[in-house]
Amino acid sequence: MLNMKYLDEIEEYLSSERLDDEFEYSPEERRHEILEFLERLMDVADKADAAATRLIFRKSQLGALMGTPPEK
Asked: Can you give the residue range of the structural domain that contains 19?
């Protein structure tokens, strides 16, 4: 399930001028697709942040204070 190569490709695309050029020279419909993709990526990043926090603190007293349920 973990695909670091794909994440590297996304990171490179976001860091390059290709994204900017594609957005600038694309029709309006494609621009909306790009913005929807970026919005979805940000939503996924928020979930990744929450998952990382849960995994890191799940066995700690700090995790208990944060409301992280104990392991089953």
From this structure: 2-64
Q: Answer whether 0.90 is exceeded by the pTM.
A: no
Tell me: the pLDDT tens digits for 10-59? Answer: 999 999 999 999 999 999 999 999 999 999 999 999 999 999 998 998 87
Alpha helices per DSSP H over 25-60: 28-57
Instruction: Give CA 10 to chain center in angstroms.
Output: 10
72 DSSP assignment: -
As to burial, measured by CB atoms within 10 angstroms (0-12 exposed, 13-18 middle, 19+ buried), residue 29 is: exposed
- Overall number of domains in the chain: 1
Does residue 41 fall inside a structural domain?
A: yes
CB 56 within 8 A of CB 68: no
